[in-house]
């Protein structure tokens, strides 16, 4: 690749597209060449997103893979499930590397994907696609043509539990995740469920026992465990714009101390710049990671009940989507992992 990589954001009119542009336009190794949108085709990006005034000078263009592929080296697919699987093969056949932010290329098993989503039109690519969680798969990501960027909840949960599961310190069939998310996780489209009067002064669970991020979590946790892992996952919607806080529970195989668990986490995430283990007594919060690529972790060993309780916080739009996509891009392009992602959290 050239020193400055020409990239396109395919489907740039949603929140993840906006977040991608916010990061990429300041990335020293990137030339943001195209941003596509059917709805806003021909309109300046800054007219649709005034926050990018005098920062992004592009206008939205038609989402035409053939036209984009001839002038693009890497494309970020920020489009809905199903749309991504339709266009990814066209970019790949033209030699363009792909980071897909939908769920279409996150699963190794076609049957699992189709059981939770819809029929897959490019199943031949599933074995090639790399699950884009850098802390687990950085070496495969470096050489990948196609990366399936993880979902926001799975990022929060998998990073929180990975050291315990990989170390065989907890029973992989005892996992519980109670997660709270801001409203941007539902996307930018208008919806009664995410309207002001439905969300403000309210806290509600949704898709209990049936959220589509569950099999994604189980896929990666099972790989870490070396056997089938299952998780009870309950998401909640909270009245804030962005952020996820996960409280995670796992039954210990044998008694552990806080110091022993801390050593396991430090060793697992050694030299991984975007996972921060909080000092004892300091608990992660969404404000601590807002608009950054960090995942903050803390834990407590509940000796009486034989459990480890882990708290994990991420920004759903940055670490849970667009920031992680750029992290994957950096690995693919041979750049330092942190390039363009040295974003200080916006707290308060």
From TrEMBL:
Catalytic activities: N-acetyl-L-glutamate 5-semialdehyde + phosphate + NADP(+) = N-acetyl-L-glutamyl 5-phosphate + NADPH + H(+)
EC category: oxidoreductase
UniProt KW keywords: Amino-acid biosynthesis, Arginine biosynthesis, Cytoplasm, NADP, Oxidoreductase
Pfam families registered for this protein in UniProt: Semialdhyde_dh, Semialdhyde_dhC_1
Active-site residues, Swiss-Prot/TrEMBL: 152
SMART domains xrefs: Semialdhyde_dh (SM00859)
Gene Ontology CC terms, in alphabetical order: cytoplasm
Domain Semialdehyde dehydrogenase NAD-binding: 6-144
Main location: cytoplasm
Keyword Cytoplasm: yes
Pathway: Amino-acid biosynthesis; L-arginine biosynthesis; N(2)-acetyl-L-ornithine from L-glutamate: step 3/4
A Gene Ontology molecular function term of the record: NAD binding
Subcellular location(s) of the protein: Cytoplasm
Chain's role: Catalyzes the NADPH-dependent reduction of N-acetyl-5-glutamyl phosphate to yield N-acetyl-L-glutamate 5-semialdehyde.
Family named by the database record: Belongs to the NAGSA dehydrogenase family. Type 1 subfamily.
Protein name (record): N-acetyl-gamma-glutamyl-phosphate reductase
């Amino acid at each position: 690749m050239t020193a400055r990589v020409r990239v396109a954001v395919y489907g740039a009119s949603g929140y993840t597209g906006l977040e991608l542009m916010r990061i990429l336009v300041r990335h020293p190794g990137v030339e943001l060449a195209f941003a596509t949108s059917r709805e806003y085709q021909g309109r300046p990006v800054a007219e649709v997103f005034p926050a990018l005034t005098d920062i992004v000078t592009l206008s939205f263009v038609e989402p035409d893979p053939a036209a984009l592929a001839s002038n693009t080296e890497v494309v970020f697919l920020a489009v809905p499930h199903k749309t991504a699987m339709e266009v990814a093969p066209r970019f790949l056949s033209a030699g363009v590397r792909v980071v897909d932010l939908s769920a279409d290329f996150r699963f190794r098993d076609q049957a699992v994907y189709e059981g939770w989503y819809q029929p897959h039109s490019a199943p031949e690519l599933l074995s090639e696609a790399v699950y884009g969680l850098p802390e687990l798969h950085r070496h495969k990501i470096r050489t990948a043509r196609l990366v399936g960027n993880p979902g926001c909840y799975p990022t929060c949960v998998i990073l929180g539990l990975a050291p315990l599961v990989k170390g065989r310190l907890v029973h992989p069939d005892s996992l519980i995740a109670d997660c709270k998310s801001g409203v941007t996780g539902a996307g930018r489209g208008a919806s009664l469920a995410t309207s002001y009067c439905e969300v403000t002064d309210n806290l509600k669970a949704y898709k209990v026992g049936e959220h589509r991020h569950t099999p994604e979590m189980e896929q990666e946790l099972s790989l870490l465990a070396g056997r089938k892992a299952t998780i009870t996952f309950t998401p909640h919607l909270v009245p804030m714009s962005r952020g996820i806080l996960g409280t995670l529970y796992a039954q210990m195989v044998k008694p552990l101390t806080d110091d022993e668990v801390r050593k396991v986490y430090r060793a697992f995430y050694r030299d991984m710049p975007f996972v921060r283990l909080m000092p004892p007594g300091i608990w992660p919060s969404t404000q601590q990671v807002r608009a950054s690529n960090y995942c903050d972790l803390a834990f407590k060993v509940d000796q009486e009940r034989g459990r480890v309780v882990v708290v994990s916080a991420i920004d759903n739009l940055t670490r849970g989507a667009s920031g992680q996509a750029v992290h994957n891009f950096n690995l693919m392009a041979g750049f330092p992992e942190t390039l363009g992602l040295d974003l200080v959290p916006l707290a308060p």
